[in-house]
Amino acid sequence: MKNSSGFSERLTHLHYCSYGNRKFINNLLQTDPYLSAVYSVRKAEVIQRCLSPNNEKIKSRMYKALENSSPRQLSEHLQSKNIQPITIYDRSYPDLLKQIPDPPPVLYASGLTGILDLPCRLSVVGTRDPSEAACNDIKQLLPDIIKVNTVIVSGLARGIDALSHRLACEREGYTIAVLGFGHDHLYPKQLQPLYQEMLSSQLVLSEYPPYMKAERWHFPERNRIISGLSMLTLIVEAKKKSGSLITADCALEQNRTVAALPGRIADTFAAGTNQLLSEGALPVFSSGDLLYELNRTQRL
Fold this sequence. Notes:
- By secondary structure, this protein is of the alpha/beta class.
- The protein folds into two domains: 76 residues; 187 residues, Rossmann fold, CATH 3.40.50.
- 46% of the residues lie in helices and 13% in strands.
- It has a nine-stranded mixed sheet, sandwiched between helices.
- Helix 9 links the parallel strand 5 and strand 6.
- The radius of gyration is 20 Å and the shape is elongated.
- The two termini are 32 Å apart.
């Protein structure tokens, strides 16, 4: 059965050994739905069939990794690092995330996984170099949201992301960080204290196996998870080519609501958010605007 611990361990093992290659995992599940053939004498044949021809280096590494470890060994290794894998077939996998076009087959979770059971979440993203006005706006908006047990979801980046996480921690609320790298390679290093605090009292998720370092394409890729965990995504202070706008695009593709803080016309850091508003994003002038929309989406 796909919801059995044995199947989840095999899926996590294959995901881990394939560098989190979603295409490989999806192909494998189509050809080997219970992930049993890949652990038989047909191992090389199955890997060959499920990876594209130009991936010879990855095929070789995968074969060695599968030969040198077992699902049970990996499970014990992750447990020793306080990392809990959550597969898309597990009951604890977030329902909202299952609904997006390209959900991660495995999430590597550290911290309080029970936070995923809380029904209401707000995703918050914005510039890494926020203005004083934007910081003040967030400090004014989020406390009322946090107070009603809304989980704040963000990306543990400098600026708006880190501030949103800190406010949730300071107000004894709940927050989820979605990483663009594996748990063993925090980036940037200056966020280590916040990361450690979140491991002990909040929740940190990554779709990347722990050994994977940050790559530039990981960050726009993980944005679909930030928006996918919530029905409402708030964009705070973004330039016209900001990565935050990628998160907004992801939310719209997922049929989720995008909200934005209005900014001054001449402010280049507000050009992206003002553009979103001109295209129909929800304007936010107070915490009441967010609370109304959160309540509305909860009733859908």
